[in-house]
Design a protein that fits this description.
Radius of gyration: 26 Å
CATH topology of one domain: Rossmann fold
Helix content: 25-40%
Number of helices: 23
Largest sheet: 6 strands, mixed
Number of strands: 25
Oligomer: single chain
CATH class of one domain: Alpha Beta
Strand content: 15-25%
Low-confidence stretches: 1-6, 46-53
CATH superfamily of one domain: Glycoside hydrolase family 3 C-terminal domain
C-alpha cells in the first residue's frame, strides 16, 4: 500500500482550525466512541509471546479497531501492518478517525545511537538533536507518530537500572538536552514532515525511587521537586513537546499518575502545556494496585480527573470502564471531553485525517539510508569518555602494532553493543569493538586475536523484555570457563596490547534491572586482573549505562575508555577513538562513586556541619568520588586563563557575562567541554556548593585558543525557595568557577544587589 507519501507537505492548520475540527468530531461522538479514543493497546502481532504481563491477542486488537474502541496502538513498526491496522481503524470509526501509532524510539529505530546516558555524555545538544531527528525520520517512515521519549528522570542513585535512559544527575545539563531531543523528534512543531510527537517521561520523580529499586515509592521535598526534578520537563514543554507520560510510583504518598496537581496545575495551568498525557504501561489500572482506587472504574475516573488523557494498556484497560464511572458520578462528561479533544487535536495536527497511511516503498529506502549510520558513528565518537590514560598509552599507533588481543565477553556481542531499549533492529549491521578494530587495523601489519575469556551472563529473573530476539544471550555449549580464561590470558601475554571489553550485559540494565551492587558482573574483574598480571599494556573498554566499581582498575589499568552502549556503528567509533583518528571528548553526566556504599553521591550537595571534613565522611574510605561530575580526559591538553566578568555587581533581573580563554597546550587537535559552576554564598536558603550554570563544547586546534563567553541571567541566579513557596533571586555574593569538570579551580566572584 502506497496511498500517500507523507513527505508531501500538507497545509498546516491554524490552532483555531485544529480546535474547530476536534470540536466538530466531538459533538457527534457517543460516550463509547469518546472512551475508545482514550485507550491505547499494545499490538505485538501473532509471533509475540510473553511470560510477563498478559497481552492482547491480534484478534482482540482488531475487534477493538473494528468497533471504534481504541484510538491508538503501539509496538507496530512494519509499514504494511501499520497500513492494514490503520485501515481497520478508519473503517471501524463512524467518523473516519485514524489511529495514533506509538513506539519506544528511545535511541533509534533501525539505526541505533548510543544510549541516552551516553548521548548526555557528549555534552552537545546539537549531536543529541541530530540523533533524534534521524530516529524520528525512520520512525515516521514506517508509520510511527508518537515516541515515549525522551526520558528526563534525574537519576542520582546508579543502582536504578533506568539511569541508562536518562540525562544523568544534573538539572541544568538535563534541561539543555531535553529541549534538544524535543527539537530532534518534533522539528518546529507537531506535524512537521519526517518528525514524530515527543513524549517526555516519567512525570515526575521516578528516578528518585527508594534504594534505586525500580517502581518503588518516592519522597521528594518541594525544593528537590522544583529545583532538580521538574526543570528538564519544563524545558521539554517550552520546546513544544506534544505529549507527556506519567510515572508509575507513589510520589509523596499519592500515585504520580493520578496527581491533579502535577498534570493540571503545574503542567497545564502553570506551564501552558497544550498536548496530551499518556500513562505508562498499565499505570491506569495500577491505581487499584496502589490501593488508591477501589476498582477499574474509579481508577479511570481518578486518572482522567487528574488530567491523564490516554491509557496505555497491555490488557483490560481501566479507561474502558469510564462509562461506568460516568454513570456513578465519579466524574463528568466535560472532563472526558477535554481529554478526548486533546487526542483528536494531536491527530489533526499530525495531518492523519488527510494522510493516514505510510508509503511502504519509501520506508525501506529511509531505513537503509547510510547517512543515518554515519550520524550514529559520529554520535558514538562524541559520547565516549576517556577516564584514564597513564603514560599516554592511548592513542594506539596502528603502524607499530604487530599483535592486539581483543578480550572479554562484550567485545564481539552485537546485541550488547546496541544496549537496552531497542527492539526493531538489524544485528547484521551492528559493528562490535572486535569488528571495528579488525576493520581499522591493517591485517598485513597487525594480527587481531579474540577470546571472550568468560561466558555471557544470563538474566536471573524473567522479564517481559526477554521475549524480544537476542535480549538474553544464549549459553554457549561446551564452554569451559577456566580454559577460556586461560586462553584469553595467553593471548594477552603474546600481544603488544590487550583491549579488554567489559561491563554490564545490556539486559542487566534498564527497566526492571536495578542492582544491589556496582561490581563488574561475574568473573570480569578476575579476567581483568589476570590480563594485567601478564605485563602487557591493557586498555579497558567499558560498556555500561551507569558507574561501576572500578577502584582496582583505576589504580592498575593504564587506560580506561567508556564507550557506553555505543549503537549500530559503535565498534567503528571505538576503533577510531583507540587509534587516535578522533580524540575522546565526552564528559561524565554523573558523579562516579568509588563503591555502592557511597550512593547517592552528587556534586551539587549543600554545605553541612564541618565542611572541611566533607571528603572524609567514612572511616574506611574517602568520601570523594572516583571521577567527578563533568570529568573526561582528552588526547589534547587544556588550560584555562583570563577569567573576567563584564561587571562585578548586578541588580536583580540583570545579567553578567563571564569570559574565559581555553588553550590546547597539547600537540593534537581536540574538543573540550568548558563548564561554568556557580555558588551563592548566602541568602534565604542554603544553596549547593556548586551548580552547573553553563557549558560549551568547542574544538580547539593544537596550540590554539578559543574565547568563550557565558551569560548568567535571572534563570541561572534564581531558585525555588521552600520558605517563600516561589522562585526567588536573592541579593547575595556569587562565586564562579570555570574549567573542565566540577572541581574547576579558576574562580572569580560578583554580587547581586537591589
Amino acid at each position: 500500500m502506497t496511498d500517500v507519501d507523507d513527505r508531501t507537505p500538507a497545509p498546516r492548520p491554524t490552532e483555531m482550525q485544529v480546535r474547530a475540527r476536534a470540536d466538530a468530531l466531538l459533538s457527534r461522538m457517543t460516550v463509547e466512541e469518546k472512551v475508545g479514543q482514550l485507550v491505547q493497546y499494545f499490538s505485538f502481532g501473532p509471533h509475540f509471546t510473553s511470560d510477563g504481563p498478559a497481552l492482547q491477542q491480534p484478534d482482540e486488537v482488531e475487534h477493538a479497531l473494528a468497533r471504534g474502541r481504541t484510538g491508538a496502538l503501539l509496538f507496530v513498526t512494519d509499514p504494511a501492518e501499520t497500513n492494514r491496522l490503520q485501515r481497520l481503524a478508519i473503517e471501524g470509526s463512524r467518523h473516519g478517525i485514524p489511529a495514533l501509532f506509538g513506539f519506544d524510539v528511545v535511541h533509534g529505530l533501525r539505526t541505533i545511537f548510543p544510549v541516552p546516558i551516553a548521548m548526555a555524555a557528549s555534552w552537545d545538544p546539537g549531536t543529541v538533536e541530530r540523533g533524534q531527528a534521524v530516529a524520528a525520520r525512520e520512525a515516521r517512515a514506517v508509520g510511527v507518530h508518537l515516541t515515549f521519549a525522551p526520558m528526563l528522570d534525574i537519576a542520582r542513585d546508579p543502582r536504578w537500572g533506568r539511569m541508562v535512559e536518562g540525562p544523568g544527575e544534573d538539572p541544568y545539563l538535563a534541561s539543555a538536552l531535553a529541549a534538544a531531543q524535543v527539537r530532534g523528534f518534533q522539528g518546529d512543531d507537531v506535524g512537521a514532515p519526517d518528525r514524530i510527537i515527543a513524549g517526555p517521561k516519567h512525570f515526575v520523580g521516578y528516578g528518585a525511587a527508594l534504594g534505586g529499586r525500580d517502581y518503588d515509592e518516592v519522597d521528594l521535598s518541594e525544593s528537590a521537586l522544583r529545583n532538580v526534578y521538574l526543570p528538564p520537563f519544563r524545558a521539554a514543554v517550552e520546546a513544544g513537546a506534544g505529549n507527556v507520560m506519567s510515572a508509575y510510583m507513589d510520589l509523596n504518598g499519592i500515585p504520580a499518575g493520578a496527581t491533579r496537581r502535577l498534570f493540571t496545575e503545574i503542567l497545564r495551568e502553570q506551564w501552558g502545556f497544550t498536548g496530551f498525557v499518556v500513562t505508562d504501561a498499565d499505570a491506569g489500572r495500577d491505581l487499584v494496585t496502589h490501593g488508591f482506587a477501589a476498582d477499574a472504574a474509579e481508577a479511570a475516573a481518578r486518572g482522567v480527573g487528574a488530567g491523564v488523557d490516554l491509557e496505555m494498556a497491555t490488557t483490560d484497560p481501566a479507561y474502558a470502564h469510564l462509562p461506568e464511572a460516568l454513570e456513578r458520578g465519579d466524574l463528568d462528561i466535560a472532563t472526558v471531553d477535554a481529554s478526548v479533544r486533546r487526542i483528536l487535536e494531536a491527530k489533526v495536527r499530525l495531518g492523519l485525517f488527510e494522510r493516514p497511511f505510510v508509503d511502504e516503498r519509501r520506508a525501506a529506502v529511509v531505513l537503509a539510508d547510510p547517512a543515518h549510520r554515519e550520524e550514529a558513528r559520529v554520535a558514538a565518537e562524541r559520547s565516549a569518555v576517556l577516564l584514564r590514560n597513564e603514560g599516554g598509552l592511548l592513542p594506539l599507533d596502528p603502524t607499530t602494532l604487530r599483535s592486539v588481543a581483543v578480550l572479554g565477553p562484550l567485545a564481539d556481542s552485537r546485541r550488547d553493543t546496541l544496549g537496552p531499549w531497542v527492539f526493531d533492529v538489524d544485528l547484521d549491521e551492528t559493528v562490535t569493538v572486535l569488528a571495528g578494530l579488525r576493520g581499522r587495523l591493517d591485517p598485513a601489519v597487525t594480527e587481531v586475536r579474540f577470546a571472550p575469556g568468560i561466558r555471557p551472563a544470563r538474566r536471573v529473573f524473567p522479564s517481559m523484555f526477554d521475549v524480544h530476539p537476542g535480549n538474553v544471550p544464549a549459553d554457549p555449549e561446551d564452554f569451559d570457563d577456566d580454559a577460556e580464561l586461560r586462553r584469553a590470558v595467553s593471548l594477552a601475554a603474546g600481544s603488544d596490547v590487550a583491549v579488554v571489553v567489559l561491563g554490564e550485559w545490556q539486559h542487566m540494565i534498564g527497566e526492571g534491572a536495578s542492582r544491589s551492587s556496582l561490581d563488574l558482573p561475574g568473573r570480569q574483574e578476575e579476567l581483568l586482573r589476570a590480563v594485567v598480571a601478564t605485563g602487557t599494556p591493557v586498555v579497558l573498554v567499558l560498556m555500561n549505562g551507569r558507574p561501576l566499581d572500578l577502584r582496582w582498575a583505576a589504580e592498575n589499568v593504564p587506560a580506561i575508555l567508556d564507550v557506553w552502549y555505543p549503537g549500530t556503528r559503535g565498534g567503528t567509533a571505538a576503533a577510531r577513538l583507540l587509534t587516535g583518528d578522533v580524540s575522546p571528548a565526552g564528559r561524565l553526566p554523573f558523579t562516579w562513586p568509588r563503591s555502592v556504599g557511597q550512593v547517592p553521591l552528587i556534586y551539587s550537595h549543600t554545605r553541612s556541619h564541618s565542611p572541611s571534613a566533607q571528603g572524609v565522611r567514612y572511616w574506611d574510605e574517602a568520601s570523594t568520588p572516583l571521577f567527578p561530575f563533568g570529568f573526561g580526559l582528552s588526547y589534547g591538553r587544556f588550560a584555562y586563563s583570563g577569567l573576567t566578568l563584564d561587571r562585578i555587581s548586578v541588580r536583580r533581573g540583570e545579567s553578567v557575562a563571564v569570559s574565559v580563554t581555553v588553550t590546547n597546550t597539547g600537540n593534537r587537535d581536540a574538543d573540550e567541554v568548558a563548564q561554568l559552576y556557580l555558588h551563592q554564598r548566602h541568602g534565604t536558603a542554603s544553596r549547593p556548593v556548586r551548580e552547573l550554570a553553563g557549558f560549551r563544547r568547542l574544538h580547539v586546534p593544537a596550540g590554539g585558543s578559543r574565547d568563550v563567553v557565558f551569560r548568567l541571567g535571572p534563570a541561572e541566579l534564581s531558585y525555588w525557595n521552600a520558605a517563600a513557596g516561589t522562585v526567588v533571586q536573592d541579593r547575595a555574593p556569587f562565586d564562579v568557577w570555570v574549567g573542565g569538570d566540577a572541581t574547576a579551580e579558576l574562580t572569580t566572584s560578583f554580587v547581586v544587589t537591589g
